[in-house]
Amino acid sequence: MSFKQVGNGSEMDEKLAALVTNANAVRAIAAAVEGTIGPKGLDTMLVDRFGEVIITNDGVTILDKMDVNHPAAKMVINIAKAQQAEVGDGTTTATVMAGALVAEGANQVVKGVPVARVIEGIKTGIRQAVEGVCGRTSQITDLQDPVLKQIALVAGREHEDIAQLVVGAARLIGLDKLREANFKLSDTITAEEGAENEVFMGVIINKERMNKEMPRELTDVKLLIIDDALEPEEVGDEALGTETGFARYLQLREEFKRNVEKIIALGVNVVLTDRGVDDAAEEILTDGGVMVLQRVAARDLRRVAEHAGARMIKRTGLKKELDELCKYTGLADRIYEDEKLAQVRLVGGRGKPMATILVGAATEEVVGERQRIAKDAAASVQGAVKGGYVAGGGATELAVARDLEKMRETIKGMAAYGVECVSFALKRPLAQIVANAGYNPLEKIEEAKAAQAGQGNDRLAVDCDTGEIRDMLRLGVVDPAPVKLHAIKAAGEVATAILRIDTIIKKREEGNQAGGKQGETAELDTPDF
Fold first, then answer.
1. How much helix, strand and coil, in percent to the nearest 5, is found in the chain?
2. Domain 199-361 has what CATH class?
C-alpha cells in the first residue's frame, strides 16, 4: 500500500523525497498488521526460506519476524517492541496510530504546512490525548472485580479458558505482588503440548533430574541454589604437567568432595545449578538421595529462589561453615518430576507467593500462539491493576479525538494542522476494527461520534457483531489504561522523529577509504521496504 501523494507527482520538490519515502515505509508496516486488530481481525502467516511457518494474530510477533530493511520501518518496529517490553500489549494499536500519524503529517507538509508547525501541533495533541485518557480511567481496588475477567478476555482474543487461568493466577498472587515494579505476571506463563490448563502456587523448572537414580518426588524440601558450576576449581594445563601442580589438582578435588558432602550434612535434598555438575558430585549427591537439576535457566533459578526463600551461592561459597551455609537454603512443601512433560514442579515454597500458569495446547503448531495469547492477557490484567482501565473498542480514542477537534478551533497558527493529525490517528484504530468486521468505517465512525455527543457518553463505539452503537463497558470491551497511554505516546514519538528527517544519506562503511574525497556530495539512498 503506497503513501498518498499530494502535488505534482514527479515534479514534487526533491526536499520532500525523504519524507515521502519514509511515510511509504511506515504505512507499509502499519498495513502489515492492521488486518489483525479487533475481535474480527484475521491471522497472518509468516514463512521463512526453510518453509517454517508461524500463524499468529500477535502484532509484535509479526513485526519482529518480518524481513525489513528500510530504516524508518525499523523505527516503527522498535517502538512496537518497546511497547511490548513496557506494557506487554497494544503493539498493533501503537503501530496503526504511528502509521496514520506519519502519513497524515506528511500529507500536511506536502500541502505546504511547515514541518516544525506540524510537529509542534502533534506534540500538543499527544499531551492533550494523554490527559484525556487519564481523565477517563477507572481504578481497580479488588481482584474480585468482574472487569478483570473482561480485560483478560479482550486481550486474550476471547479465549475463555486462558482468561480464567490468568485471572485465577492474579488472585492467587495478590494486589501487592502485581503492583511490584519488577514483577511481570506474563513471566509466570508456560505452554506445553499435551498439558492440561492449570494454575498452581509454585514454579515450573523446564529440566529433568540429572539421572534416574535420583528421587523423582520429595516432600519437606530443603534446597540449595548454586549460581555456578558444581565442579572443582580448575588447574591450568601447564601446571598439571608439574608435580606441584598435580598435587594441587588432587588437593582441590578432595576439598571439593568435602564441600559437596556438606550439602548432604545440611539436610539439603534438592540442588539446582546454573551450569554443569562434576561426576564425583553427581555420585555423592545421588548416593545421598538428593535430586539435582543442572543447567537451569537463570530466570527459573530466580523464581525458585524467590518462592522458596533461598539465596543463591557460588561454588566457592560451599567452603563456608554449616551454620553459615544454612542461611542460603530454601524450603518448600513438595518437588516432583513430570516425566510426560519433561519438567519439574516445586510447590508450596516458604518464600514469596509465586503462581504459575500452565497453558495446554493440542498440537505443537499452536503452542507458541497459545502462549502469546496468554502473555497478552496477563500483561493486560496486570496493567489494569497497576494503572486502571478504560472503555475499549476504540471508544476512548474516539472521545479523545472529539476533544482535540474542539481544541483545534482555539489554536492559532498552523500548529492546528498537527493537532488534526493526532485526531485523525486516534480514530484510526476504530476505523480499522470496523473495517475488519465488515462495516463501512467512515459511516460507523460518524455514527459513533454523533452518539457520543448526543448521549454524553464517551464509552460508545461499534459492536462488531451487530454493527450497532453500544456502551463498550457494558458490553465487556475493556482495555488497560497503561496500554492506551503507552501506545499514544509511542506513536507520537516515532512520528515526530520520522517527520524531522529531511534527508536520507547512505553511510560510508567503517574503514572504507574509497567513500569519496572530503567535500563531495553524499549519495542519496532511498532503501526499499
1. 55, 15, 30
2. alpha beta
